Amino acid sequence: MKTLSPQEKARLLESIRDIPDFPKPGILFKDITTLLNDAEAFGLLMNHLADRYRDADIDFVAGIESRGFIFGAALADRLGAGFVPIRKKGKLPGTTIAEKYALEYGFDEIEMHIDAFREKEGARVLLIDDLIATGGTAEAAVKLIRAAKGSCVEACFLIDLTFLGGRKKVEPLASVYAVLEVA
Ligand code: AMP
Asked: What is the number of structural domains in the chain?
């Protein structure tokens, strides 16, 4: 499967803005809105993702709330796949399955509709989010895909904050791909 050239990676990286101390002191927030409003960078990213997964027989792209919705829905349309939202607890109206995961203090929970894969057993699902940090959210999302009898073909991120080691949490469950690695 295809990867980007160093020049293309640099172009994407420079389109992402760092916001220090957001949403709380000590966090360097990776703001992808400056990639989204840069048509050339957004196009470069989406062309790359479409190239990478075009022949992977993806039935559904599952995006994690909320930035995973943006990339996931655009990619699903390009691949001729369905789009499935994975949302924070209490947002989805139908019957859901849920998965809890640990935060620094306490727990959080994400949900997916139980019939999200339209009863297609072994549905080939690509998971997508903008960023993997500790990996807790993505690990829970892969578990949801499996609980709904889907097969997670790959968990795909625009950015991997490699110093947090989140990839290690997900790799036992699914292959992991990050377009950009930030050390
Ligand atoms: P985690 O479960 O720790 O891997 O956190 C991943 C989720 O938190 C993703 O949905 C990210 O969008 C968000 N996130 C965590 N850290 C950052 C960061 N430094 N900049 C932007 N988003 C982040």
From this structure: 1
* Catalytic, out of 67, 87, 139, 154: 67
The string of pLDDT tens digits covering residues 158-176 is 999 999 999 999 999 999 9
Domain assignment present for residue 160? The answer is yes
Range of the domain at 69: 57-182
Q: How far is the CA of 27 from the centre of ligand 1 (A)?
A: 10
Q: Does residue 65 belong to any structural domain of this protein? A: yes
Evaluate: CB of 136 within 6 angstroms of ligand 1.
yes
With CA atoms as reference, report the closest residue to 137 among 170, 95, 168, 180: 170
Structure confidence by residue, pLDDT tens digits, 23-36: 999 999 999 999 99
Q: Check whether 149 has a pLDDT greater than 80.
A: yes
* Angle between helical axes of 67-79 and 39-53 (0-180°, round to 10): 60
CB within 8 Å of 129: residues ≥ 6 apart: 63, 64, 67, 68, 137, 138, 141, 155, 156, 157, 158
Q: What CATH number is attached to the domain comprising 90?
A: 3.40.50.2020
3-state secondary structure of 22: coil
Ligand 1 pocket, residue 30 CB under 6 Å: yes
Query: Cα 93 vs. chain centroid, distance in angstroms?
Result: 22
DSSP state of 171: T
